[in-house]
From TrEMBL:
Keywords: ATP-binding, Glutamine amidotransferase, Ligase, Nucleotide-binding
MF terms in GO: asparagine synthase (glutamine-hydrolyzing) activity
Gene: asnB
Record InterPro entries: Asn_synth_AEB, Asn_synthase, ASN_synthetase/amidase, AsnB_N, GATase_2_dom, Ntn_hydrolases_N, Rossmann-like_a/b/a_fold
Family: Belongs to the asparagine synthetase family.
Repeat among keywords: no
Protein source organism: Flavobacterium ranwuense
Reaction catalyzed: L-aspartate + L-glutamine + ATP + H2O = L-asparagine + L-glutamate + AMP + diphosphate + H(+)
Name of one Pfam family that matches: Asn_synthase
Enzyme Commission number(s): 6.3.5.4
Pathway linked to the protein: Amino-acid biosynthesis; L-asparagine biosynthesis; L-asparagine from L-aspartate (L-Gln route): step 1/1
Domain (Glutamine amidotransferase type-2): residue spans on this chain: 2-213
Protein name, as recorded: asparagine synthase (glutamine-hydrolyzing)
Alphabetized SUPFAM superfamilies for the sequence: Adenine nucleotide alpha hydrolases-like (SSF52402), N-terminal nucleophile aminohydrolases (Ntn hydrolases) (SSF56235)
Length: 615
């Protein structure tokens, strides 16, 4: 049930333009190829594209109207525990006429209003128009798994699952200076702001209410800090984790269409597969992206796991012209310059899976909840970073990419910035030296989240970084997952992001996360009897790719690299001090240290050339 988009005019005398609404809706056809709908009444208009997952009949058609005619709903996502509410709704006089979670969502709202939100286990972005009170209520799920963008422009309120629908409606595509600065320093724009002027995000766990008078209120309905503080002590963490995780996987298997697993071969996705096998699910299909470069490849492990559990397995590699084409496509679906650099691969594997499944299970979120990134280790002993900063010119530090990056990171001297820039690839000193840009972004939202993290976990930089990433970096990963999988008309679900796991893990002592050589201790303990040592002890790879080699050695990128060196991007005043020819020449000579500097600029060049010209 995806592809929510609609418009609400704030002027009573101004009627909805059906042609504009239809164009907005159909710009998101990839999010919902199975059905489409419109609702227009004077100055309010909803459009919807549907990907049919639960109740694939026309009973789940949207926009969805309440039986009394008062409410109109457009909804994107899944309420995994929707059947739990059947007895309660029936006892309160509601008939259940479909097997769709959309109907349950509507009737729960009629019965309880927004007080029902904390009882929902799911991912969702939805909007409800109340004809009686003349107000629009817009809601986003706890972690922001489902996207929701909006704009107040030309006396109209527009909202949509993707920015392209807003541009289609006529909202101008203009880069925001603050957004550009965050993209360069932090890789993505965090919080409610975006790369664009006039376009914002509804924050995860927030409600936005727009009255016809024009009054707007925003409130937080789910506060992770308070939830962690109120979490009762977990008596047997490993048993609790295993049981809750299995139940989360089971809940996310609710579907009337086939569900597959996005299987990297790493610990997280293999744990999902092991849980499915433990719960005796049959005929599961798994999908993998492989790499010819051994240091980036986990396909052999994924294949081993699928065969171990007698599940189907498909893998592919993405190279040369195919990689270039998928880069262009993923930039379109992303609506912004790609920044994780795995978007083309995720889109390609999703498109490969589409003939077989409509839903993916993904291991996203485990690293941010349990300390899975190597970069967190630098925060274990902050005093050591000072030592590294002073001896960083030794060969051992400059010739090994990971140590070279650590040396640059060690130049950061404020603890708050150690957390705020922990997920960056290049740091303020690097950007000043190489790009000639000396002023970091304001980062107001990041600073607010850091303040929360510090108050929840005082004197604990590692836990602060986890909390910080759960509100920032993870949001960008979830957006990437949603855009790439929905670009292939597949819905992505994340079992690790069950609210019970998020809150419970946040309340545990450090030893349950950071013990052992590679951390994520509780997950390894919970899975030690289900997974082989090859998975439990394998060096983390993640979905990474050697982009420096791709753009310098692949024939498909040869012309693009030449175009990049002369890009209009470097006519922008913000980038006027960058000697891009020198950076590219150094990369072509084999200096891989240039890769983290070049890639954000290269991806912005691709975006300017192929996306920004469409609107």
């Amino acid at each position: 049930m995806c592809g929510i988009n609609g418009i609400l005019h704030l002027q009573l005398q101004k009627k909805v333009d059906e042609r504009v609404l239809t164009k907005m809706r159909d710009s998101l056809e990839h999010r919902g190829p199975d059905d489409k709908g419109l609702f227009i009444e004077n100055n309010i208009g909803f459009g919807h594209r549907r990907l049919s997952i639960l109740d694939v009949s026309m009973s789940g058609h949207q926009p969805f109207l309440s039986e009394d005619g008062r409410y109109v709903l457009v909804y994107n996502g899944e309420i995994y525990n929707f059947k739990e509410f059947y007895p309660e709704l029936k006892n309160n006089g509601f008939d259940i006429r479909t097997t769709s979670d959309t109907e349950v969502l509507m009737k729960l709202f009629q019965l309880h209003g927004l007080k029902m939100l904390n009882r929902l286990n799911g991912m969702f972005a939805f909007a409800i128009w109340d004809k009686l009170e003349k107000k629009l209520t817009v809601v986003r799920d706890r972690m922001g798994v489902k996207p929701l963008y909006y704009s107040f422009y030309n006396e109209t309120f527009y909202f949509a699952s993707e920015q392209k629908a807003l541009f289609t409606a006529g909202v101008p595509l203009k880069i925001a200076q603050d957004g550009l600065e965050e993209y360069i320093f932090n890789r993505f724009v965090a919080g409610e702001n975006t790369l664009y002027q006039n376009i914002k995000k509804v924050l995860p766990g927030h409600i936005m209410t727009i009255h016809e008078s024009g009054k707007v209120t925003i409130e937080k309905w789910w506060d992770l800090k308070k939830e962690i503080q109120n979490q009762p002590k977990i008596k047997n963490p490993v048993e609790w984790f295993r049981e809750t995780f299995d139940d989360s996987v089971k809940l996310r298997m609710v579907s009337d269409v086939p569900v597959g697993v996005l299987l990297s071969g790493g610990l997280d996705s293999s744990s999902i597969l092991a849980s499915l096998h433990h719960q005796t699910y049959k005929d599961i299909q798994t999908f993998n992206i492989g790499f010819k470069e051994k240091e980036h490849n986990e396909a052999h492990l994924a294949k081993m796991m699928a065969e171990k559990f007698d599940y189907g397995f498909q893998t592919m590699q993405l190279e040369h012209k195919n990689l270039y084409d998928k880069l262009i496509s993923s930039t379109y679906f992303q609506d912004e310059p790609i920044m994780h650099l795995s978007e083309p691969h995720l889109l390609a594997v999703s498109q490969m899976a589409k003939p077989s499944v409509k839903v993916f299970l993904s291991g996203e979120g485990a690293d941010e909840l349990m300390g899975g990134y190597v970069r967190y280790k630098a925060l274990q002993y902050p005093s050591l970073l000072n030592s590294i900063a002073t001896i960083g010119n030794l060969d051992v530090f400059t010739k090994q990419p990971r140590y070279e990056k650590l040396t640059r990171y060690a130049q950061i001297n404020k603890k708050s910035n150690l957390v705020i820039f922990n997920g960056s690839n290049i740091y303020p000193n690097d950007i000043a030296e190489i790009f000639g840009i000396n002023t970091p972004p304001k980062n107001e939202y990041r600073k607010q989240i850091y303040k929360e993290a510090k108050s929840l976990y005082p004197n604990n930089l590692r836990r602060q970084a986890l909390y910080f990433d759960q509100h920032t970096y993870l949001c960008s990963l979830l957006d990437r997952n949603d855009r790439c999988t929905m670009g292939a008309s597949i819905e992505c679900r994340e079992p690790f992001l069950d609210p019970r796991l998020i809150v419970g893990l946040g309340s545990l002592e450090d030893k349950w996360l950071f013990a052992g050589k590679k951390w994520k201790f509780i997950l390894k303990k919970a899975m030690e009897n289900r997974l082989p040592d090859e998975i439990l002890k394998f060096r983390k790879v993640g979905l990474s790719a050697p982009w420096g080699d791709y753009i310098t050695k692949s024939p498909a990128f040869k012309d693009e690299l030449e175009s990049f060196s002369k890009s209009d991007l470097f006519q922008m005043s913000y980038f006027q001090h960058i000697n891009i020819q020198k950076l590219v020449q150094n990369l072509q000579k084999g200096d891989t240290r240039m890769t983290p500097y070049i890639m954000p600029l290269f991806m912005m060049h691709i975006w300017m050339k192929t996306y920004a010209t469409k609107f």
